[in-house]
Amino acid sequence: MLAASSPARYTAAMQEITARVLFFGRLKDIVGVSEVACSVPEGAHIGQVFSQYVQRCPELAAYRKSVVASRNREFVSFETTVGAGDEIAFLPPVSGG
Amino acid sequence: MSHAQSHLDDHFALTRSQIHAEALIEKVRTAGDGAVVTFDGCVRNHSLGRRTLHLEYEGYEPMALEKMREIGEQLHKMFSIDRVAIVHRLGRLEIGETSVFIAVSAAHRAAAFDACRWAIDTLKRTVPIWKKEFFEDGAIWADGELPPVPGAASAVESAS
C-alpha cells in the first residue's frame, strides 16, 4: 500500500518552476548577488520568493515593508503569482534623479 | 504632423558618460516651439549635514528605460508639448556633475514648465534607479521613494 508520503503524491504537489530573481541597491548588498535562478512551487506568489531569501538572509526581513516587487519589469504586488521564466525583481525605495 | 502614439523624436537614455545638455536641447527644439524648459539634476556636495565625496548610481536598466519612456508617453497625453528628452547617468559621479537631464519643448512655455516638473517628480518616484552616497566615514544608499504598486497600495503606505 502506498503511504501518504508516496513519491507520486509528493511530486504532484511540489511541481516546481524556475524564475530569475534580481536584487538591487541595499538588497543586493544583503543577499550578496544581483541575480539568481530561483525554484518555487507552481502557483507560488512573489511574497513566497521573498520569504525564501529572508530564510537565508534574516536581515532582509526588516526591509519587507520598504521593498516593492516587479514581474517582467512591471510593478506588481507581493500577491502576484510567479510564472515559469519570469523576471522577478526586488526593489528598494527608488532614489534616482 | 503629429505622431499619435509613438513620438519618434523623443529621446530616452541611460549613460555611463557625461551628459551633454546642449545636445539634448537641440534634440527637442524645433521651429514650431516657443519654449524649451530643462531640468538639470546635479550632484550636491552635502547630504543631511554631511560632506558628500561622490555618488554612485545603479539602475535596473531595462525597466528604468521603460519607465522613462512611459513618462514621455504620459507627458504627451497630459500637456501640450512638442518633444521630450530624458537622460539619466549611472555609475560614479563627482560633485557638480549632471545625474539627470530633462528637456521639454512646447509651442508655449506653460506646458513646457508643467511637463518638465511633472517628469522629474515622476521619475523620482517610479524609475528604478538607486543612489549610493559616499562620505568621509562610509557610504549609504540614499533614502528613496516607494513606487506606487497597482492593487497593493494603501495598507503599506499608510504606515509611513
* Span between termini of chain A: 65 Å
Most extensive chain contact?
Answer: A-B, 24 and 37 residues
Q: Could you state the CATH homologous superfamily of chain A? A: Beta-grasp domain
Helices and strands of chain B, in order, run as: EHEEEHEEEHEEH
Number of domains of chain A: 1
Low-pLDDT segments of chain B: 153-160
Mean pLDDT of chain A, to the nearest integer, reads: 90
In CATH terms, what is the fold-level topology of chain B? Aldehyde Oxidoreductase, domain 3
- SS content category of chain B: alpha+beta
Which architecture of chain B per CATH? Alpha-Beta Complex
Rg of chain B (CA only): 17 Å
Q: How many E strands of chain B? A: 9
- Unreliable spans of chain A are 1-8
The level 1 CATH classification of chain B is: Alpha Beta
Share of residues in strands of chain B: 25-35%
Identify the overall geometry of chain A. Answer: globular
The CATH architecture category of chain A equals: Roll
Tell me what the structure shows.
The complex is a heterodimer of chains A (97) and B (160). Chain A has helices spanning 7-13, 25-31, 46-56, and strands at 16-23, 35-41, 68-71, 74-76, 87-91. Chain A is 26% helix and 28% strand. Chain A has one domain (15-91): Ubiquitin-like (UB roll), CATH 3.10.20.30. Chain A is globular, with a radius of gyration of 15 Å. Chain A has 97 residues and is α+β, with helices and mostly antiparallel strands. Chain B has a single domain (23-137), classed as Molybdopterin biosynthesis MoaE subunit (Aldehyde Oxidoreductase, domain 3, Alpha-Beta Complex). Chain B is globular and about 50 Å long. Chain B is α+β, with helices and mostly antiparallel strands and 160 residues long. In chain B, strands 3, 4, 6, 8 and 9 form a five-stranded antiparallel sheet that branches. A four-stranded mixed sheet of chain B has the order 1-5-7-2, with helices on both faces. The A-B interface holds A 22, 24-26, 29, 65-66, 68-70, 73, 75-79, 89, 91-97 and B 41, 57-60, 62-64, 66, 88, 99-100, 120, 123-132, 141-152, 156, 159.
